[in-house]
Write a sequence for this structure.
């Protein structure tokens, strides 16, 4: 049974890959979005890490990676939320670091607040960026004004690249989205029943 399940899964993956290459549909849309996401992160790293030689170059590709969304509107909304969370987490961690002058004590102050804020439903998946940004600040001990300014600039650079790539490179088209599931549902149901 285990070998049969692996064979079935391998065939399902092969069918998805074949459909992505041969016909428009959900598989092709997913492949395009995935390649756009990787391209946005690579471009952000090239600009921030290689060309600009930024001290926290990781922030740019990290931001770009998560901003290639299923629609340009979602990319913009996610960028606003993500930037707000990075600002909050960074500033709170920097204040805790200056106040305590001890990474462990600063984490004990900053993390409960940033995690609580990050779990606020209005911030959605971007809420995670508040405690993550706080951890970056405190783990690297980088909470001078210069470091904070760079972190914000690098986050903005990644946001601009992520949104730009999503909007300009094969922009997401959703008029097809209703047609694909309607056509695919009987086929997938038959495969599942088989």
């Amino acid at each position: 049974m285990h070998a049969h399940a692996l064979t079935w899964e391998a065939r399902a993956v092969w069918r998805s890959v074949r459909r992505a290459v041969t016909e428009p549909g959900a598989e092709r849309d997913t492949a395009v979005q995935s390649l756009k996401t990787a391209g946005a992160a690579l471009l952000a790293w090239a600009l921030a890490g290689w060309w600009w030689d930024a001290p926290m170059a990781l922030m740019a590709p990290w931001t770009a990676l998560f901003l290639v969304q299923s629609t340009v509107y979602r990319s913009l909304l996610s960028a606003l939320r993500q930037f707000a969370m990075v600002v909050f987490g960074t500033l709170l961690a920097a204040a805790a670091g200056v106040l305590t002058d001890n990474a462990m004590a600063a984490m004990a102050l900053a993390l409960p607040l940033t995690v609580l804020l990050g779990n606020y439903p209005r911030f959605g998946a971007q809420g995670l960026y508040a405690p993550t940004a706080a951890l970056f600040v405190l783990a690297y001990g980088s909470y001078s004004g210069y470091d904070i300014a760079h972190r914000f600039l690098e986050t903005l650079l990644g946001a601009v690249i992520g949104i730009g790539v999503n909007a300009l490179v094969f922009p997401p088209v959703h008029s097809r989205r209703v047609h694909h599931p309607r056509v695919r549902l009987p086929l997938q149901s038959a495969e599942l029943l088989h």
In short: The chain has two domains: 1-25+177-194, 37-175. Residues 1-25+177-194 form one domain. The CA atoms of residues 34 and 68 lie 9 Å apart.
